[in-house]
Amino acid sequence: MNTTAPLAERLRPRSLQDYIGQSHLVGPGGVVRRMIESGRVASFILWGPPGVGKTTLARIIANTVNVPFYTLSAVNSGVKEVREVLEKCRRDVGSMFTQGRPILFIDEIHRFSKSQQDSLLGAVEGGVVTLIGATTENPSFEVIRPLLSRAQVYTLRPLEESELKELLDRALASDSVLQSHGVEVHETTALYRFAGGDARKLLNILDLLEQSTPEGEAIVITDKVITERLQENPAVYDKGGEMHYDIISAFIKSMRGSDPDAALYWLARMIEGGEEPEFIARRMLILAAEDIGLANPNALLLANATFDAIHKIGWPEGRIPLAECAVYLALSPKSNSAYMGIDAALAKVRETGNLPVPLHLRNAPTSLMKDMGYGRDYKYAHDYPGNFVVQQFMPDALGHHPFWHPGDNPAEMRSAALQNQRWGGVKPAAGKDVPDC
To answer: Fewer CB atoms inside 10 Å of the end CB: C or N, the chain?
Structure first.
């Protein structure tokens, strides 16, 4: 064993038996475990935060399945490198010595451009290669739709405290470097809190403790020691920008809490840390819809324009529209009524299933459908005064079931007043005749 390698590398699992966490995927009956054990691996993308085992799982597959296995990192691979690997895969597929499709693992696939992802599509679709991707970003935003349709997405979760404890126990029991010091574990609350469900971060903290403990002295783990050492060496537990989840959380909460100064501070931290501007702009888009919403619909327009602007101007000028948008969002009135409304509607749909559409709301493109009553008695709103007429729009079984509740802000209060004026305070009960008005 290379004792100079980081602890996270020294303890990297080589088989599923040593893998900690993600039991929903690799536990008994888990879909990834079944694929590995059968040796028939389908294309998939592993989505999860740093340090939860995405790359390790890919390496375990490489050690287990009897097919050629290639790796690329999206950080330092271009279209040329992708095409070279795919050409090797084509030769493998045509070889009598290859038992199955080659596997191509792409780390940080979210960093691939559209053209790079397009170069993969034909090979995946044609069965030349099985793709395994790893990403910390939502594949819905970062991976092109045709590629997503050909690769199942599996979500990896932060490690639970019990799993972090298992990892700590394994490190203390099996690593010779830690054992050469001797380790005294008195408290672990701070250790697990700073790790935040990230296995690599926990092992990096242990590395820091070992490196900062003189030879011949025992490594002592207490909440006080952990907090003091990490405050003195913040970069050690933030390798590779892993702290960006904490900082983006502070950034979002500052804007949600209407503090433009804090929003600018956390924005500056991300810019100085080399965060991708698209990541920042995308989170502001989400906040504009989720936390400002109907209280100021212009916020979503500005956030979308900001996302477009950074693509056009890049760094360093991109910091200016990002800052403008962050301050605007922080100063905007807040409402989550649309967010809460759609979640309430989704919950009701999952509860009640596929309720039939009332006949008068159905489309009637054929004479048979018209004879069956499709579209009959539908009232065209523009034929009535004020472009409004009372009629039933909910399924019969639901009756009047409100999902949207106005937020406490002038814009939504005006909308709510208009709704009450139109509907007389209460929408009509489903299934009853409603007079024209």
So the answer is: N
CA distances from 280 to 138, 269, 272 (A): 13, 11, 13
Q: Report pLDDT digits (tens) over 160-172.
A: 999 999 999 999 9
- Rounded CA gap, 175 and 56, in Å? 18
Cα separation of 326 and 338, whole Å? Answer: 21
Residue-wise pLDDT for 206-247, tens only, equals 988 988 888 888 899 999 999 888 876 555 545 344 466 778
For residue 418, with 0-12 CB atoms within 10 Å meaning exposed, 13-18 middle and 19 or more buried, which class applies? exposed
- pTM of the full structure: 0.58
**Residue 26 CB-density burial (10 A; 0-12 exposed, 13-18 middle, 19+ buried):** buried
Say if residues 403 and 369 touch (Cβ distance below 8 Å). no
Distance CA 356, CA 362 (A): 10
* Residues 24-39: tens digit of each pLDDT: 999 998 999 998 888 8
Nearest to residue 200, comparing CAs of 68, 50, 401?
50
Is the distance from CB of 416 to CB of 341 less than 8 angstroms? no
Cα–Cα distance measured from residue 169 to residue 153, given in angstroms and rounded to the nearest whole number = 31
